[in-house]
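Q: Hi! First time asking for a complex rather than a single chain. Here are the components, and I think there are two in total. Is that enough to go on?
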Amino acid sequence: NAGVTQTPKFRVLKTGQSMTLLCAQDMNHEYMYWYRQDPGMGLRLIHYSVGEGTTAKGEVPDGYNVSRLKKQNFLLGLESAAPSQTSVYFCASSSGGAETQYFGPGTRLLVL
Amino acid sequence: SQELEQSPQSLIVQEGKNLTINCTSSKTLYGLYWYKQKYGEGLIFLMMLQKGGEEKSHEKITAKLDEKKQQSSLHITASQPSHAGIYLCGSNSGYALNFGKGTSLLVTP
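A: Yes, that's all I need. Here is the structure of the assembled complex.
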């Protein structure tokens, strides 16, 4: 089992460019999450999904969009990247809202 | 959202020494999770505590949740270089986890 995988591992963008981060899980989990991790701020929830075709806003959703067209995939989009979106992005999945979350290895994004 | 305070923020210990990391909440914790993050990598699940007074151990790491379910501690016995990393506590908010800011642990020879 691969668990939770993220693509790409590292990316550099210029301000205003767009990109999509892909998260895939092979555990048949219903719930999926996107977090960002910044120094001194800890992990903050961007968006989450409680099942295929559903998405919801987390703590810091502005500037991001998400889609969950397939149960195993959760996409995070940046339409117009800003330097403030420089961060490490983590995807996670769980079988339920009160269950253990399993994390991917992270995507490091640098916006110049 | 429920805020979690972790202490200390960082810790340097000599190999073989014991150490404790604390996680405190102002509200009752319904599900407290401990994760470890190696530098530059993802989060690895360590343990989950739910009941007041509960204690769990895995190898040399023991986690406890107090009776009031507002504080948890993570204790490492006879630390090793492999224990180095960032330890994060997280509480269940019903649909996601709220995390503390983490405790950075360095183990020196």
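A: The longest strand of chain B covers residues 85-92. Let me know if you'd like any chain examined more closely.
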